[in-house]
Amino acid sequence: MLSLKPRESPTFSLDPAKMREIFEHAKPLGHYEDQAGLNLGFGFLYYGLVRSLRPRHIVVIGSGYGFSVVCLALALKDNGSGSLSFVDPSYSLLKHGPLRTVGGTSQWDEPEKVRAHFARFGVEDQVTHYKETSAEFFAAYERRRLPDIDLAFIDGSHAFADVRHDFLAVLDYTRRNSYVLMHDTNIYVRELVGHAGVKRWLNLIERERSAFEIVDFPFSSGVALIRIMCEAGWRTDGE
Ligand SMILES: C[S@@+](CC[C@H](N)C(=O)[O-])C[C@H]1O[C@@H](n2cnc3c(N)ncnc32)[C@H](O)[C@@H]1O
User: For the purposes of burial, counting CB atoms within 10 Å of the CB of 232, is it exposed (0-12), middle (13-18) or buried (19 or more)?
Assistant: First the structure.
C-alpha cells in the first residue's frame, strides 16, 4: 500500500537550472519541447504521470540522450520510491544504419559514462541500464526476477514488427491499470514509406476497446498514453 503521508523532506526537481541541464545534456527530440521558453513539452507529462501514479517499476525501451529516462526518474526520486529499467543496446545511426535506429547516437556504450550521465541529474540510484535489445531484455526478465511493470515507455526500434514485439512483451508484465507511453506516433512520412509503424500499431489496438484506452497527443513527433485494462499476456489475432 502506498503511504500518502507527507515525507519529511519532500523535493521538487524541476527547477529552472535542472531544466536547462536537461535541455543541454538529455537533449529532447520530438517531445513538443521549447528550449527558449524552458518548456519540457511532453517531459512535463512524463514527470507528472509518475508523480501522480507513483509507479514502483518503470521500463524505458530506447532513448537518444536520456530525455524520457531523466524526466521519469526525477519524478521517481521526488516520489521517494520506485526504480527504472532502461533498455538500449546503444545503436547509432552512423555505425548501425537507419534500419536499426534513426535517433540513436551510441550514448550508452560504457557503464561508467552511463552512470555519470544519470548522476549529473541525480538519478543514478533510480536508473539501471541494460545494454541490450528489448528482445534480449525480456528473454532475461524472469531470471533477473524483475518486478512487474507499472509504466513503460516504448521508443526503441520503430519498425512495425519491433513496435509490436515491444508492446506485447511489455504486456506480459503489466496488470490492469498499468500504463504504456509510445513515442513517435506522429512521424507521418516515415510511416508512409513503411520505415516506422507506431501509429499503425496504435490503429490496430484501438479496435480492442475492452483491452485498452488510448489518448494520442499528435504534436511534434507525437506520444500516446495507453491504459491497460486486460490481463497480462494479452495477444491479438491481427497482423
Ligand atoms: C533515439 S531513440 C529514437 C528517437 C527518439 N524518439 C528521440 O527522441 O531521440 C532510438 C533508440 O532506440 C534504441 N534501440 C534501437 N533498437 C532497439 C531495440 N531493439 N531495443 C531497445 N532499444 C533499441 C537505439 O539504440 C536508440 O538509442
Answer: middle
Query: What architecture (CATH level 2) is domain 16-228?
Result: 3-Layer(aba) Sandwich (3.40)
Q: Is the CB of 155 under 6 A from ligand 1?
A: yes
Q: What is the DSSP string of 209-235?
A: TTTEEEEEE-STT-EEEEEE-SPTT--
88 lines ligand 1 (CB under 6 A): yes
Cell readout for 206 is 484501438
Task: Tell me which residue has cell 507513483.
Answer: 54
Q: What is the pLDDT of residues 9-63, one digit of tens each?
A: 899 999 999 999 999 999 999 999 999 999 999 999 999 999 999 999 999 999 9
Choose one of 60, 87, 91, 153 to mutate for the ligand 1 pocket test, by most ligand atoms within 8 angstroms of C-beta. Answer: 91
- The CA R_g of the chain, rounded to the nearest whole Å, is 17
Strand-pair partners of 113: none
- Ligand 1 pocket member 30 (CB < 6 A): yes
Q: Where are the domains of the chain?
A: 16-228
Q: So what's the pLDDT on residue 191?
A: 87
Task: List the one residue out of 194, 235, 223 whose CA is nearest residue 28.
Answer: 223
Give, for ligand 1, the residue of 65, 133, 157, 162 to mutate: max count of ligand atoms closer than 8 Å to Cβ.
157
List the end-to-end C-alpha distance of the chain, in Å, as a whole number: 39
User: CA-to-CA distance for 158 and 61, rounded, in angstroms?
Assistant: 11
